[in-house]
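This follows on from our talk about sequence and fold. Go ahead and set the record down below:
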Amino acid sequence: MRYSFRVRTKSVRETISIGRALGRRLSPGDVICLSGELGAGKTCLVKGLAEGLGIRGRVVTSPTFIIIREYKGRIPLYHIDLYRIGSIDDMRDLGMEEVVYGSGVTAIEWAERIRDRLPDERIDITLKWSDIKTRNVEMKAFGQHHRRVLKEVLEDLRRLAGCSRRL
């Protein structure tokens, strides 16, 4: 059974806030799968994840050309970008399975490219443009641990919305 919800963001800052709320709740071994069109805010959300894990979000950049970046925080963050991956074999050569099933948090951009290889327990996040300024962010939890995490994130976002009236 999965758990899901949607929120809208109207700025990069709000997208980062969602990632930050999620990052504060993550544990070693958690996998976050990000999907959405180019420029929809996947890397912005990962910047927020990093901040929630105690990593300066400003140091986070898209690993499009190097495929995997590691950031040190209270839990290591492995940021993977599959935009330029040609095949599943390319990923094996990079040692991606060791990263995904390791002791850090793994955020995978363009995760839909390996949908059949993703862990059963994970969080899927899809970002879509609603209009020029607004993104729809859909979050789905697979597994009991991730359902609990997303429920707590939703509570955090509701509290933030009550303060800022933005989410």
Summary: The radius of gyration is 15 Å. The chain has a mean pLDDT of 85. The chain has one domain: 26-154.
